[in-house]
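A quick aside before the break. I want you to see a complete sequence-to-structure record at least once, exactly as it would be stored in a machine-readable document. Don't worry about memorizing anything.
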Amino acid sequence: LQVLKYMANDCDNESIVVEDSRRQTYYGRLDEAAREKIFKGIFEQWAQNLPALQANPAIDKTKLLRLRNRILDTFESWIRLALPDEVFENLVNDCPHLIEMLFAELDSEEDDNLTTAVNCIVELISLSQKRDRYGAIKQTVISKVGDLQGHVQRVVASGDFERADQFAEIFVELARSHMSQIVDDGSAIVDI
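That is the input. The structure line, written in tokens, reads:
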């Protein structure tokens, strides 16, 4: 996971210093591998296997927490890349366990996982605004963010303003990116 994270970060920052034709070949191979090998083959598989690992009492919970953080952290790096449209068009269908894990981390007591999950959700909201072809991401994220109302009420009632601030980042990005759709659809998010 760390190698994948650094690959994505290096591509995003263009810090890999190579001749242009080799750079294009490298990017082409990343584009080809992203959907099947990276998103479905790694991110989705890890997210799918995590519940079984968490149910195993022999596995150290600290290591599982670190693993969840690395999955989310690496996923965040990859969603920031300019990958082919089909990677993101099919993300919700290709990686349902990953999407569920992402939103489940909003309940995490671990601040790093919460922050990374919020960053991923904000990136997905922003990404879904950029192309009409990413409608499945938009609908899923809007629906799941609408389901956060109970979480937000509990966080505010408990006085956990740091966590409330994290949720606010999601709502601000959603409003900035998709306000017209939320208002037009009469979404429950408006009640939050």
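Two observations worth writing down. The radius of gyration is 17 Å. Residues 142 and 174 are 8 Å apart (CA to CA). We'll return to this after the break.
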